[in-house]
Write a structure and sequence with these properties.
Strand content: 15-25%
CATH topology of the largest domain: BirA Bifunctional Protein, domain 2
Helix content: 40-55%
Strand order of the largest sheet: 1-9-10-11-14-8-7-2
Order of helices and strands: HHHHEHHHEEHEEHEEEHEEEHEEEHEHE
CATH superfamily of the largest domain: Bira Bifunctional Protein, Domain 2
Number of domains: 2
Structural class: alpha+beta
CATH class of the largest domain: Alpha Beta
Shape: elongated
CATH architecture of the largest domain: 2-Layer Sandwich
Number of strands: 16
Length: 433
């Protein structure tokens, strides 16, 4: 959530930030300003009436003490009138407050001044490339075909169990997935991250805190806890960013605990609404996928430098596995709604002859913290401030599996695994079934 005080004080700055994002939210911002002004005006009326009612209530006792019954009755009637008017105004106030809050939730974060200006993916900037591309001397096979030939990937079985866009791993494939997760978690723990094993189902307000609700409701899997009128909605997490970041929800975080560095492996669930027809083969875009996530909670002045380190921590996984990759700075028009600055990591897929996103690392500033009411206090008597939150894939497990297969494939149909991963897998190669 953007700072409402900034929106009121300097709306042109907000408009400029939204224009840099492509201008799609400009109308929503004007609607928010109008709703906010109406809400504040009505709130002022309510506050004034409450004050008048309180003054009149106090004077009733004084009038009775002075045995001025006529004045006391007049004041009683005045208080009753105030209550009636207040009830009417408060009936208007509650839905208006909810509508204003919903409008605020719909606005994206403002891009940081260091973000490259642009309108779409083509305007993203390549910052660096790690390891030269390796082109095999033979025609590379895509990871789905290769995995099926090796007997380690079974999409037909997955479809029989759950439908399209699900995957099933067998034997060495399942063991490789487990090895990839263990390898990543061990490296991130050595880098100072605290491992967390969170719930996979969360309440609506938790998703609202990190920005998935209300905007991405259609992408989420929803269930209910309880029955009938007492049933409470729960959502399957689309990323471990959601539970990890919300660990500081409604908290006053101790200054000495900052920065907090958290990591977790979880399955993730997204309906990929609106994406049908894109990346229908393989592991690139499934409804259920696995990911190791990185989250930082920092002081405001530290978040940009934290983003650099978080991105390096994710990139280190790819470098240690000796996989060709590159790092991009996303332009203003390609930022996610909650981000003020994002770096994407892309990995080379030989069969496609192109790079594919495998991690996205974002600095959200205080955007999520405002939604979560997550704050810290620098000193005992200092005013509370909002923390800054950051998140990044560290990295996507299924896509890494796909990249390992495609980059490690040999002419005889086997796959040679990266040296750093071999101890976790318990072998150097995966051979034909």
């Amino acid at each position: 959530m953007i700072d409402p005080a900034l929106a009121r004080k300097d709306p042109e700055r907000v408009r400029a930030g939204l224009k840099a994002r492509g201008g799609r939210s400009l109308l929503a911002f004007e609607e928010f300003l109008a709703l906010d002004a109406s809400h504040r005006a009505l709130m002022a009326q309510v506050d004034a009436l409450r004050a008048q009612r309180n003054v009149a209530s106090q004077q009733i006792g004084k009038a009775k003490a002075e045995k001025d019954e006529a004045r006391a009755q007049k004041l009683v009637a005045e208080v009753a009138e105030h209550k009636t008017r207040l009830a009417a105004l408060e009936t208007e106030l509650t839905p208006l407050a909810a509508k204003t809050h919903l409008a605020a939730l719909g606005l994206p974060n403002l891009p940081h001044e260091s973000v490259p200006r642009g309108t779409a993916e083509a305007d993203n900037v390549v910052l660096r490339t790690g390891l030269p591309l390796r082109s095999p001397a033979f025609k590379a096979i895509d990871h789905q075909t290769l995995g099926e030939k090796l007997g380690i990937l079974d999409f037909k079985a997955a479809a029989k169990l759950a439908g399209s866009r699900f995957a099933l791993w067998r034997g060495a494939g399942a063991r490789l997935m487990r090895a990839i997760v263990s390898f990543q978690l061990d490296r991130h723990i050595k880098a100072g991250y605290l491992e967390v094993w969170p719930p996979y189902l969360v309440r609506p307000e938790v998703l609202e805190g990190t920005g998935q609700l209300p905007k991405f409701e259609a992408d989420l899997y929803k269930t209910f806890n309880g029955e009938g009128d007492k049933a409470q909605p729960l959502y399957l997490i689309p990323t471990a960013e959601v539970p990890l970041t919300n660990l500081v929800r409604d908290d006053l975080v101790a200054n000495e605990t900052l920065p907090m560095k958290l990591t977790a492996y979880t399955p993730c669930f997204r309906q990929e609404a609106g994406s049908y027809g894109k990346d229908v083969r393989g592991l690139i875009r499934n409804h259920q996928f696995d990911k190791v996530e990185l989250v930082w909670i920092t002081r405001p002045e530290e978040s940009l430098s934290a983003l650099e380190q978080l991105t390096k921590d994710a990139e280190a996984i790819l470098s240690e596995l000796q996989l060709p990759h590159r790092v991009l700075a996303l332009c203003t028009g390609d930022l996610g709604p909650a981000s003020r600055k994002t770096y994407d990591l892309e990995i080379w897929m030989p069969a496609e002859g192109r790079y594919r996103e495998i991690a996205s690392c974002s600095d959200c500033g205080d955007y999520q913290a405002r939604r979560m009411n997550a704050r810290f206090r620098r000193e005992a008597k200092a005013a509370p401030e909002f923390v800054h939150t950051l998140n990044g894939s560290g990295v996507a497990v299924g896509r890494l599996f796909a990249a390992i297969l495609e980059n490690g494939q040999q002419q005889d149909g086997s796959v040679r695994l990266p040296k750093a991963l071999q101890p976790f897998f318990g072998g150097e190669t995966i051979g034909p079934a």
